[in-house]
Amino acid sequence: MIDLVTRREWGARAPRGSYGRLSSTRGVKVHYTGGHVSPDIVGDHARCVALVRSIQNHHMDGNGWIDVGYSMLVCPHRKVFEGRGPKHVPAANGSGLNSGHYAVLGMVGDTGLTEPPDDMLHGIVDAIEYLREKGGAGREVKGHRDGYSTTCPGDRLYRWVKAGARRPDVPEEKPVEVVVRDGVALWPGRVLELVDPMMRGEDVRAWQARLARRGWRIGVDGWYGSQSRTVCRSWQRAVGLPVTGKVDEATWESTWSWTKPSADEKD
Length: 267
Known about the structure:
two-stranded parallel sheet; Lysozyme-like; alpha/beta; 12 strands; 31% helix
């Protein structure tokens, strides 16, 4: 569901050297631009592209880094710019802290555009999901100031991070009851799939928890994101079901009834 702007598309300069490699991280740290960010970028996406280029120039020419320091950068139009990308060590988290978390920037500052628009928050979540799927990012979502002396990512964006970094304005859903009989959760009656806004509920959490107990690497947070879809596909492949990435009735029931697959058999 990510609207990715590749380095080629935004006109990135080539890095001056090789990135350090990452296979996984504890999670993601959220950053902001700081200083003054013109509110005009909300109505003119070309200004967002120019801002990303200027950030790269500052990091390379001012800081002396080999490239832009962020893994991904997010603008008010829910577009996610590829920075260093997944599997590469960022430079923006601070000395000694870069290998622990990826770095995702939201384009807000101390003056001008200070309140992250909803589409920017959606884009940051899109970036986090992408880094989990492609880069092995863990479940932690923290602010730059967590562990490093800085005001980043600004008070407004940091409040959102501390509140759980959830997608904004997700409509309330009627609670889905999960009935358990003899240790087996009965089919709740709806297909779990990756949609926008993201599907959530106790049925999602129950399915995630069951796979986690089986030894599969999956976050148990009640939100059906790209990681859940990827694990669903792997599970379906392992048990011989159609590989759809959707938890339909057959997939749900196999999660409790199938006995052959183990953590060693997943791909």
